[in-house]
Amino acid sequence: MREEESAPEEEQEELFEHHRIVADVGQKPLRVDKFLGNLLPNTSRSKIQQAAVAGNIRVNEQKVKSNYKVKPEDVVQVVLSYPPREVELVPQDLPVDIVHQDSDVIVVHKAPGMVVHPGYGNHDGTLVNALLYKFQNLPGLNKERPGLVHRLDRDTSGIMVVAGNEAAMAHLANQFFERSTERTYWALVWGNVEEEEGTVTGHIGRSPKNRKVYQVYPDGDQGKHAVTHWRVLERLGYVTLVECKLETGRTHQIRVHMKHIGHTLFNDKEYGGDKILKGTTFTKYKQFVENCFNLCPRMALHAKTLGFEHPTTKKRLTFNSQLPEDMHALVEKWRNYGHR
Length: 340
Prior knowledge:
Blueprint: E1 2-5, E2 16-22, E3 30-31, H1 32-39, H2 45-53, E4 57-59, E5 62-63, E6 69-70, E7 75-81, E8 97-101, E9 105-110, H3 127-134, E10 157-163, H4 166-177, E11 182-190, E12 197-201, E13 203-206, E14 214-217, E15 227-235, E16 239-246, H5 253-260, H6 283-295, E17 301-309, E18 316-320, H7 325-339
Parallel strand pairs: 10-17
Antiparallel strand pairs: 1-2, 2-7, 3-6, 4-5, 4-7, 8-9, 9-10, 11-16, 11-17, 12-15, 13-14, 15-16, 17-18
Helix pairs in contact: 1-2, 2-4
Protein backbone atom coordinates (compact mmCIF):
# COMPACT_ATOMS: atom_id res chain seq x y z
CA MET A 1 0.00 0.00 0.00
CA ARG A 2 1.45 3.35 -0.98
CA GLU A 3 0.11 6.65 0.29
CA GLU A 4 1.12 10.21 -0.39
CA GLU A 5 -0.65 13.50 0.21
CA SER A 6 -1.53 14.81 -3.21
CA ALA A 7 -1.02 18.38 -4.37
CA PRO A 8 -3.92 20.58 -3.19
CA GLU A 9 -5.99 22.06 -5.99
CA GLU A 10 -7.46 25.29 -4.64
CA GLU A 11 -7.42 27.95 -1.98
CA GLN A 12 -8.54 25.32 0.48
CA GLU A 13 -5.08 23.74 0.18
CA GLU A 14 -4.41 24.61 3.83
CA LEU A 15 -7.95 23.83 4.95
CA PHE A 16 -8.26 20.30 3.59
CA GLU A 17 -5.97 17.29 3.29
CA HIS A 18 -5.69 15.38 0.03
CA HIS A 19 -4.77 11.70 0.19
CA ARG A 20 -3.70 9.47 -2.68
CA ILE A 21 -3.48 5.76 -1.94
CA VAL A 22 -2.52 2.96 -4.32
CA ALA A 23 -4.02 -0.42 -3.40
CA ASP A 24 -1.69 -3.41 -3.17
CA VAL A 25 -1.53 -6.02 -5.91
CA GLY A 26 -3.06 -8.51 -3.47
CA GLN A 27 -5.87 -6.23 -2.32
CA LYS A 28 -9.11 -8.14 -1.71
CA PRO A 29 -12.39 -6.42 -2.72
CA LEU A 30 -13.32 -3.98 0.06
CA ARG A 31 -15.76 -1.08 0.29
CA VAL A 32 -13.90 2.16 -0.27
CA ASP A 33 -15.23 3.71 2.96
CA LYS A 34 -13.85 0.76 4.96
CA PHE A 35 -10.64 0.80 2.91
CA LEU A 36 -10.03 4.47 3.75
CA GLY A 37 -11.23 4.11 7.33
CA ASN A 38 -8.59 1.43 7.95
CA LEU A 39 -5.81 3.66 6.65
CA LEU A 40 -6.63 7.22 7.74
CA PRO A 41 -6.27 8.08 11.44
CA ASN A 42 -8.73 10.41 13.19
CA THR A 43 -11.23 9.90 10.38
CA SER A 44 -14.71 8.52 11.06
CA ARG A 45 -16.56 6.38 8.56
CA SER A 46 -19.40 8.93 8.48
CA LYS A 47 -16.97 11.67 7.40
CA ILE A 48 -15.67 9.42 4.63
CA GLN A 49 -19.21 8.69 3.50
CA GLN A 50 -20.01 12.43 3.45
CA ALA A 51 -16.95 12.91 1.25
CA ALA A 52 -18.28 10.28 -1.14
CA VAL A 53 -21.71 11.95 -1.29
CA ALA A 54 -20.03 15.25 -2.19
CA GLY A 55 -17.96 13.59 -4.92
CA ASN A 56 -14.71 13.97 -2.97
CA ILE A 57 -13.64 10.34 -3.40
CA ARG A 58 -12.19 9.25 -6.73
CA VAL A 59 -10.87 5.88 -7.87
CA ASN A 60 -8.75 5.93 -11.00
CA GLU A 61 -9.89 9.56 -11.57
CA GLN A 62 -13.60 8.62 -11.44
CA LYS A 63 -16.00 9.65 -8.66
CA VAL A 64 -17.29 6.68 -6.67
CA LYS A 65 -19.88 6.02 -3.98
CA SER A 66 -18.96 4.73 -0.54
CA ASN A 67 -19.95 1.15 -1.47
CA TYR A 68 -17.44 0.95 -4.34
CA LYS A 69 -15.24 -2.14 -3.97
CA VAL A 70 -11.53 -1.32 -4.09
CA LYS A 71 -9.55 -3.69 -6.33
CA PRO A 72 -5.82 -4.41 -6.71
CA GLU A 73 -3.74 -1.40 -7.84
CA ASP A 74 -6.70 0.99 -7.71
CA VAL A 75 -5.62 4.62 -7.21
CA VAL A 76 -7.85 6.09 -4.50
CA GLN A 77 -7.98 9.86 -3.89
CA VAL A 78 -9.96 11.62 -1.16
CA VAL A 79 -10.37 15.19 0.11
CA LEU A 80 -11.03 15.51 3.85
CA SER A 81 -10.96 18.30 6.41
CA TYR A 82 -8.02 18.19 8.79
CA PRO A 83 -8.11 16.14 12.02
CA PRO A 84 -8.90 17.63 15.47
CA ARG A 85 -7.04 20.71 16.59
CA GLU A 86 -4.60 20.95 19.47
CA VAL A 87 -5.66 24.41 20.69
CA GLU A 88 -8.99 25.55 22.06
CA LEU A 89 -11.10 27.93 20.00
CA VAL A 90 -12.80 30.72 21.93
CA PRO A 91 -16.03 32.32 20.64
CA GLN A 92 -15.64 36.12 20.55
CA ASP A 93 -18.21 38.85 20.04
CA LEU A 94 -16.53 40.56 17.09
CA PRO A 95 -18.20 42.54 14.29
CA VAL A 96 -18.90 40.47 11.17
CA ASP A 97 -20.71 41.69 8.06
CA ILE A 98 -23.07 38.83 7.16
CA VAL A 99 -24.35 39.15 3.59
CA HIS A 100 -26.47 35.98 3.48
CA GLN A 101 -27.24 33.05 5.73
CA ASP A 102 -29.37 29.93 5.69
CA SER A 103 -29.01 26.45 7.20
CA ASP A 104 -26.36 25.46 4.65
CA VAL A 105 -24.23 28.51 3.87
CA ILE A 106 -23.12 31.74 5.49
CA VAL A 107 -21.73 34.44 3.21
CA VAL A 108 -19.67 37.16 4.86
CA HIS A 109 -17.89 40.32 3.78
CA LYS A 110 -14.48 40.03 5.44
CA ALA A 111 -13.00 43.30 6.60
CA PRO A 112 -9.38 44.12 5.72
CA GLY A 113 -6.96 43.30 8.51
CA MET A 114 -9.01 40.40 9.90
CA VAL A 115 -7.27 37.03 9.98
CA VAL A 116 -9.56 34.22 8.80
CA HIS A 117 -8.56 31.43 11.19
CA PRO A 118 -6.26 30.97 14.21
CA GLY A 119 -2.67 30.10 13.50
CA TYR A 120 0.87 30.96 14.48
CA GLY A 121 0.84 34.42 16.06
CA ASN A 122 -2.96 34.75 15.73
CA HIS A 123 -4.67 32.65 18.38
CA ASP A 124 -7.83 34.74 18.62
CA GLY A 125 -9.56 37.76 17.14
CA THR A 126 -10.11 35.90 13.87
CA LEU A 127 -13.15 35.46 11.65
CA VAL A 128 -13.54 31.92 13.00
CA ASN A 129 -13.68 33.21 16.60
CA ALA A 130 -16.38 35.66 15.55
CA LEU A 131 -18.39 33.03 13.67
CA LEU A 132 -18.30 30.65 16.63
CA TYR A 133 -19.94 33.34 18.76
CA LYS A 134 -22.79 33.80 16.27
CA PHE A 135 -23.17 30.19 15.07
CA GLN A 136 -22.76 27.44 17.66
CA ASN A 137 -23.21 24.50 15.27
CA LEU A 138 -20.60 25.08 12.58
CA PRO A 139 -19.29 21.85 11.02
CA GLY A 140 -15.92 20.66 12.26
CA LEU A 141 -16.10 22.30 15.68
CA ASN A 142 -13.33 19.97 16.84
CA LYS A 143 -10.96 21.48 14.28
CA GLU A 144 -9.07 24.75 13.92
CA ARG A 145 -11.09 25.92 10.91
CA PRO A 146 -14.78 25.07 11.46
CA GLY A 147 -16.96 25.81 8.44
CA LEU A 148 -14.13 27.04 6.23
CA VAL A 149 -13.75 25.82 2.66
CA HIS A 150 -11.51 28.64 1.43
CA ARG A 151 -9.86 31.73 2.85
CA LEU A 152 -8.57 35.22 2.13
CA ASP A 153 -5.28 36.76 3.21
CA ARG A 154 -5.37 39.02 6.28
CA ASP A 155 -5.18 42.23 4.23
CA THR A 156 -7.60 41.11 1.51
CA SER A 157 -11.18 42.27 1.97
CA GLY A 158 -14.30 40.85 0.41
CA ILE A 159 -16.73 37.97 -0.04
CA MET A 160 -16.26 34.56 1.60
CA VAL A 161 -18.57 31.58 1.98
CA VAL A 162 -18.69 29.44 5.14
CA ALA A 163 -20.42 26.06 5.41
CA GLY A 164 -23.28 25.68 7.87
CA ASN A 165 -23.18 21.88 8.21
CA GLU A 166 -21.04 18.87 7.33
CA ALA A 167 -22.88 17.99 4.11
CA ALA A 168 -22.64 21.59 2.86
CA MET A 169 -18.97 21.70 3.80
CA ALA A 170 -18.21 18.61 1.72
CA HIS A 171 -20.29 19.92 -1.20
CA LEU A 172 -18.64 23.36 -1.21
CA ALA A 173 -15.16 21.88 -0.83
CA ASN A 174 -15.79 19.76 -3.92
CA GLN A 175 -16.80 22.86 -5.92
CA PHE A 176 -13.51 24.53 -5.06
CA PHE A 177 -11.67 21.29 -5.85
CA GLU A 178 -13.32 21.05 -9.27
CA ARG A 179 -12.92 24.81 -9.94
CA SER A 180 -16.62 25.30 -10.54
CA THR A 181 -16.81 28.37 -8.30
CA GLU A 182 -16.53 31.83 -9.85
CA ARG A 183 -14.32 34.38 -8.12
CA THR A 184 -13.35 37.85 -9.22
CA TYR A 185 -11.09 40.30 -7.42
CA TRP A 186 -10.41 44.01 -7.89
CA ALA A 187 -6.83 45.14 -7.48
CA LEU A 188 -5.02 48.45 -7.81
CA VAL A 189 -1.64 47.73 -9.36
CA TRP A 190 1.44 49.79 -10.14
CA GLY A 191 1.92 50.98 -13.71
CA ASN A 192 -0.22 51.58 -16.76
CA VAL A 193 -1.42 48.17 -17.93
CA GLU A 194 -1.28 48.67 -21.68
CA GLU A 195 -3.40 45.74 -22.89
CA GLU A 196 -7.14 45.66 -22.23
CA GLU A 197 -7.11 42.09 -20.93
CA GLY A 198 -4.92 39.03 -20.70
CA THR A 199 -4.10 35.76 -18.97
CA VAL A 200 -1.16 34.87 -16.77
CA THR A 201 -0.21 31.19 -16.73
CA GLY A 202 2.69 30.16 -14.55
CA HIS A 203 3.45 27.60 -11.86
CA ILE A 204 3.53 29.16 -8.39
CA GLY A 205 5.74 27.93 -5.57
CA ARG A 206 7.55 29.24 -2.52
CA SER A 207 10.59 31.39 -3.08
CA PRO A 208 13.82 29.58 -2.14
CA LYS A 209 15.17 32.87 -0.76
CA ASN A 210 12.16 33.83 1.37
CA ARG A 211 9.70 31.18 2.51
CA LYS A 212 7.05 33.81 3.29
CA VAL A 213 6.58 34.76 -0.35
CA TYR A 214 5.91 32.91 -3.59
CA GLN A 215 7.17 33.25 -7.14
CA VAL A 216 6.40 32.09 -10.67
CA TYR A 217 8.32 29.19 -12.16
CA PRO A 218 7.70 29.78 -15.90
CA ASP A 219 9.07 26.42 -17.01
CA GLY A 220 6.76 24.54 -14.67
CA ASP A 221 9.64 22.63 -13.13
CA GLN A 222 8.50 23.63 -9.64
CA GLY A 223 5.35 24.85 -7.92
CA LYS A 224 1.73 24.26 -8.91
CA HIS A 225 -0.16 25.11 -12.08
CA ALA A 226 -1.90 28.49 -11.78
CA VAL A 227 -3.98 30.61 -14.17
CA THR A 228 -5.24 34.18 -13.66
CA HIS A 229 -7.40 36.07 -16.17
CA TRP A 230 -7.36 39.86 -15.88
CA ARG A 231 -8.93 42.89 -17.56
CA VAL A 232 -8.48 46.63 -17.13
CA LEU A 233 -11.28 48.48 -15.33
CA GLU A 234 -9.75 51.96 -15.21
CA ARG A 235 -6.38 53.53 -15.95
CA LEU A 236 -5.36 56.11 -13.38
CA GLY A 237 -1.98 57.29 -14.64
CA TYR A 238 0.78 55.59 -12.71
CA VAL A 239 -1.59 52.91 -11.38
CA THR A 240 -4.35 50.78 -12.93
CA LEU A 241 -7.52 49.29 -11.46
CA VAL A 242 -7.88 45.73 -12.75
CA GLU A 243 -10.28 42.84 -12.32
CA CYS A 244 -8.76 39.39 -11.83
CA LYS A 245 -10.67 36.16 -12.32
CA LEU A 246 -9.20 33.03 -10.79
CA GLU A 247 -9.14 29.80 -12.73
CA THR A 248 -7.06 28.21 -9.98
CA GLY A 249 -6.61 29.48 -6.44
CA ARG A 250 -3.03 29.21 -5.26
CA THR A 251 -1.70 31.00 -2.23
CA HIS A 252 -0.91 34.66 -3.11
CA GLN A 253 -1.85 33.88 -6.75
CA ILE A 254 -2.99 37.35 -7.86
CA ARG A 255 -0.16 39.05 -6.00
CA VAL A 256 2.46 36.79 -7.57
CA HIS A 257 1.04 36.75 -11.10
CA MET A 258 0.58 40.52 -11.31
CA LYS A 259 4.10 41.12 -10.02
CA HIS A 260 5.35 38.59 -12.59
CA ILE A 261 3.96 40.71 -15.46
CA GLY A 262 5.39 43.90 -13.99
CA HIS A 263 2.35 45.24 -12.13
CA THR A 264 2.83 44.69 -8.41
CA LEU A 265 -0.19 45.33 -6.19
CA PHE A 266 -0.22 48.81 -4.68
CA ASN A 267 1.11 48.82 -1.09
CA ASP A 268 1.77 45.07 -1.07
CA LYS A 269 4.63 45.13 1.42
CA GLU A 270 5.73 41.52 0.98
CA TYR A 271 6.15 41.91 -2.79
CA GLY A 272 7.64 45.41 -2.90
CA GLY A 273 4.47 47.34 -3.67
CA ASP A 274 4.95 49.66 -0.69
CA LYS A 275 7.59 51.61 -2.63
CA ILE A 276 7.14 54.06 -5.51
CA LEU A 277 7.46 51.80 -8.55
CA LYS A 278 6.08 54.22 -11.17
CA GLY A 279 5.85 57.99 -11.44
CA THR A 280 8.00 61.09 -11.12
CA THR A 281 10.83 62.15 -8.83
CA PHE A 282 9.05 65.31 -7.68
CA THR A 283 8.78 65.77 -3.93
CA LYS A 284 5.06 66.56 -4.17
CA TYR A 285 4.45 63.26 -5.98
CA LYS A 286 6.38 61.34 -3.34
CA GLN A 287 4.26 62.97 -0.64
CA PHE A 288 1.09 62.16 -2.59
CA VAL A 289 2.01 58.46 -2.77
CA GLU A 290 2.91 58.42 0.92
CA ASN A 291 -0.51 59.86 1.67
CA CYS A 292 -2.04 57.07 -0.44
CA PHE A 293 -0.13 54.45 1.56
CA ASN A 294 -1.49 55.96 4.77
CA LEU A 295 -5.02 56.15 3.39
CA CYS A 296 -5.05 52.43 2.53
CA PRO A 297 -2.40 50.88 4.79
CA ARG A 298 -2.63 47.42 3.21
CA MET A 299 -2.38 45.87 -0.22
CA ALA A 300 -5.14 47.07 -2.52
CA LEU A 301 -6.91 43.75 -3.16
CA HIS A 302 -10.63 43.03 -2.75
CA ALA A 303 -12.63 39.84 -3.35
CA LYS A 304 -15.44 41.43 -5.39
CA THR A 305 -17.70 38.51 -6.37
CA LEU A 306 -18.20 34.87 -5.49
CA GLY A 307 -20.47 32.41 -7.29
CA PHE A 308 -21.25 28.82 -6.33
CA GLU A 309 -23.98 26.19 -6.39
CA HIS A 310 -26.13 26.01 -3.27
CA PRO A 311 -25.52 22.62 -1.59
CA THR A 312 -29.23 21.84 -1.14
CA THR A 313 -31.25 23.80 -3.70
CA LYS A 314 -28.57 23.40 -6.41
CA LYS A 315 -29.35 26.96 -7.52
CA ARG A 316 -26.47 29.12 -8.69
CA LEU A 317 -25.80 31.91 -6.21
CA THR A 318 -23.64 34.94 -6.93
CA PHE A 319 -22.70 37.57 -4.37
CA ASN A 320 -21.19 40.95 -5.11
CA SER A 321 -19.54 43.39 -2.70
CA GLN A 322 -18.65 47.06 -2.79
CA LEU A 323 -15.11 48.25 -2.29
CA PRO A 324 -14.41 48.91 1.41
CA GLU A 325 -13.91 52.50 2.49
CA ASP A 326 -10.11 52.47 2.47
CA MET A 327 -9.73 51.07 -1.03
CA HIS A 328 -12.57 53.20 -2.41
CA ALA A 329 -10.92 56.34 -1.02
CA LEU A 330 -7.58 55.23 -2.50
CA VAL A 331 -9.05 54.83 -6.00
CA GLU A 332 -10.79 58.20 -5.71
CA LYS A 333 -7.55 59.87 -4.66
CA TRP A 334 -5.72 58.52 -7.72
CA ARG A 335 -8.67 59.45 -9.91
CA ASN A 336 -8.53 63.05 -8.70
CA TYR A 337 -4.75 63.15 -9.10
CA GLY A 338 -5.08 62.03 -12.71
CA HIS A 339 -7.60 64.77 -13.43
CA ARG A 340 -5.25 67.38 -12.04
